[in-house]
Specification:
The complex is a heterodimer of chains A (117) and B (110). Chain A is mainly beta and 117 residues long. In chain A, 0% of the residues lie in helices and 50% in strands. Chain A has no helices and eleven strands. In chain A, strand 7 and strand 8 form a beta hairpin. Chain A is globular. Chain B has 110 residues and is mainly β. In chain B, 0% of the residues lie in helices and 56% in strands. In chain B, strands 2, 4, 5, 9, 10 and 11 form a six-stranded mixed sheet that branches. A five-stranded antiparallel sheet of chain B has the order 1-3-8-7-6, with no helix packed on it. In chain B, strand 9 and strand 10 form a beta hairpin. The chains are: A mainly beta (117), B mainly beta (110).
């Protein structure tokens, strides 16, 4: 089946630094990629939707200048948490769609646990 | 805000037991309902995508039903095995995105 590789699996950083998370579709082209955040005991919350070659669409309440999303190719999307603070500590996970149509299944990465000290 | 509710939050069963859990979603403007299986330290894996009222889908010992008019879907596991231990997520599709429930955490004891 289709594989989405997400790196790193976990990262610890100091407050004020930036962290980049990569999400790659290894054996298919991802027209659309979604980035989610999950706090403990809560559901996956969509942060933004990105389509290859265009600007990401952010959900209400998500700061686009803080969470920079780049989807430069059909196989790679990156999420950069800029000037991270302890409140940004969370689990971040990406998913990819071959068509962008929500009546088709998504392929997920394995997630990144971010801890900001 | 659209709510997708899953119950129970967690479930502990013995190997061989059959079990089921529920996903409730808004009954208006239905487009699709997804079920995913998420094992610890792995990627969520798609089980089913259901689009039609009355749909029933099956994959091995796992099956799901859909009632879009009343806004619920059931996931059934027949003869649970320890390898079925995972969190099961449902997601409601609307407006080009998926809204996820909190999941049902299933633990199957040998």
């Amino acid at each position: 089946g289709a594989v989405v590789s997400q790196h790193p699996s976990w990262v610890i950083c100091k407050s004020g630094t930036s962290v980049k998370i990569e999400c790659r579709s290894l054996d298919f082209q991802a027209t659309t990629m979604f980035w989610y955040r999950q706090f403990p005991k809560q559901s996956l919350m969509l942060m933004a939707t990105s389509n290859e070659g265009s600007k990401a669409t952010y959900e209400q309440g998500v700061e686009k200048d803080k969470f920079l999303i780049n989807h430069a190719s059909l196989t790679l999307s990156t999420l950069t948490v800029t000037s991270a603070h302890p409140e940004d500590s969370s689990f971040y996970i990406c998913s990819a769609s071959t068509s962008g149509d929500t009546n088709e299944k998504l392929f997920f990465g394995s997630g990144t646990q971010l801890s900001v000290l | 805000i659209l709510n997708v509710e899953q119950s129970p939050q967690s479930l502990h069963v013995q190997e061989g037991d059959s079990t089921n859990f529920t996903c409730s979603f808004p009954s208006s403007n239905f487009y699709a309902l997804h079920w995913y299986r998420w094992e610890t330290a792995k990627s969520p894996e798609a089980l089913f995508v259901m689009t039609l009222n009355g749909d029933e889908k099956k994959k091995g010992r796992i099956s799901a039903t859909l009632n879009t008019k009343e806004g619920y879907s059931y996931l059934y596991i027949k003869g649970s095995q320890p390898e079925d231990s995972a969190t099961y997520l449902c997601a409601f599709a609307q407006g080009g995105k998926l809204i996820f429930g909190q999941g049902t955490e299933l633990s199957v004891k040998p």
